[in-house]
Amino acid sequence: MSLHFLLPVLVCLACLGIIAWAIVYRPRPHNIDNVILSARKLDLAALETLLDTASEWNLRRSLTPRGLREVQEDRMRLAREYLQRVAFNTTLIQLWILREHECVQRKKLEDYSEADLLVVEALQLTTELRFYSLAASLRMWVWMALKVYRWPSRMVPRVTGLREQCGINVLDKYRRLTELAVILSGRYGTVYRDRLVEAL
User: Fold this and answer.
1) How would you classify the pairing of strands 164-165 and 168-169?
2) End-to-end CA distance of the chain
3) Nearest to residue 113, comparing CAs of 103, 126, 123, 127?
4) What angle do CA 129, 134, 136 make, to 5 degrees?
């Protein structure tokens, strides 16, 4: 008797799950419009200043231990925000480039145009930046969970250490990725290119 009751309930749950997956979790097409509309503005010069070794060294020399801890807390939170923007924008660009890469994959390597090679390079950069983001996010999470900015000033980690993770320099890679994205957006016209430059 319980099987007669349980079977229709399971079938209904399975149907609801399929409908929910089809509506909520269905793959959405990503194109350049998605990147332009959803990208989070990032001042790369400000990130570079934040990750600059000389500026952090000057802070450590000029501030009291208590002042340094307060400043490092703000700098860590700011670095986390900037790196989240890098990760988010990289994901958007990767989803757009994957769509472009589908057309490139159909060609033979010797038939690749210059734009096709840029698509391949951009896809490689997005993959590297995703690895970087994973490592940097894990490191930032540990820092925040342990509240390392409250430790004695000699033990407070240097924010500049986030500049490179897993052998990937975030500034160089992200700068090159945005350059490639802008070049590739030129295929859609100058309006798209200008809007992408403004969005990133």
Assistant:
1) antiparallel
2) 61
3) 103
4) 90
Total Cβ atoms within 10 A of residue 165: 19
Six-digit token pair at 16? 């609801």
The CA distance from 44 to 175, in Å, is: 8
Tokens for 162?
A: 């986030």
Task: Find the DSSP H helices in the chain.
Answer: 2-24, 32-38, 44-50, 53-62, 65-105, 114-146, 170-185, 190-199
Buried/exposed 134-147: b ≥16 CB within 10 Å, e otherwise = eebeebbeebeeee
The DSSP secondary-structure symbol of 48 reads H
pLDDT in tens, 100-110: 787 777 777 77
pLDDT of residue 88: 92
Pick the closest to residue 195 from 178, 182, 176 (CA basis).
182
Residue 133 contacts residue 86 (beta carbons within 8 Å): yes
Handedness of CA 154, 155, 159, 165 (dihedral sign): positive
Query: How far is it, in rounded angstroms, from Cα 119 to Cα 112?
Result: 10
**Contact 148/170 with Cβ under 8 angstroms?**
no
Residue 200 has pLDDT above 60, yes or no: yes
The reported pTM is 0.78
Determine the Cα–Cα distance for residues 6 and 14; give it in Å rounded to an integer: 12
Structure tokens at 28: 């959405």
